[in-house]
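Researcher: Go.
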Amino acid sequence: MPSDRIRTALWVVPPIVAAVLLLPNPWVAVLFAAIVWGAGQEWTALMGLPHDGGRAAGVVLLPLMAATYVWGDLDAVGVLLGVALFWWVLATIWVVCFPVGLPGGASLRGRKLLVGLLLLLPAWLALITLHGSAEGPRWVLLLLVMIWLADAGAYYAGRRFGRRKLAPQVSPGKTWAGFWGGLAAGLAAGLLGPLLLRLEMPALGAYALTCLVTVAGSVVGDLTVSMFKRQMGVKDTGHLLPGHGGILDRIDSLTAAAPIFTWGLGRAQGWL
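Model: Structure:
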């Protein structure tokens, strides 16, 4: 793994982990809102909107996040996350069919902004809902570790064994070997994590399925963002994080993984 990626991870990951474990839920909501806002600015730039358009999108996104946090009804959260899961099913079909069906042109930027909203708002809502649940900070930490290890597993397995391309028209660097390596690493982290973090794990079958779909879904999140980058002819959504690109490049997997994991765990434990 390139040294830039390691150096960036060393100064980004520890503060995030400390914040998740030590800060109260309202402050974590603010922290994640700032991250999502930054990713939203990158998304609007990717869509070709001028700077004023990006700021206007932020003006819409932040009040929506504040409203969902203040509202905070778990039944409503469950419905919203269910809608997000349906969106990710559609996104999977979209990725498989790429480039057919992808909106293009300035007249369709509104649709792309809606896609950005579907990417970011449910992920933020899922993370703060999970963080506010029983043992929530440790569950959020486990989710992050699952995705990070899945990413690392995919990287190394892909480099060592990768031959057959996973989605050549969307992300030519990804291989089926990388997919299976990431799936194995993420699933192992998900199943061992509750033991190491002393978390109350729900029924093993339901929880294992949740972890499996979460890690697989994280790949769809990554590919969905890659699909739009491919259409716009760019490699990264930004340059804030050396070796990683932009904020959205770093959290693209989490945009799908967070709603899936929170919904699945909440249903399995009976609080959502």
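Model: The chain has a mean pLDDT of 87.
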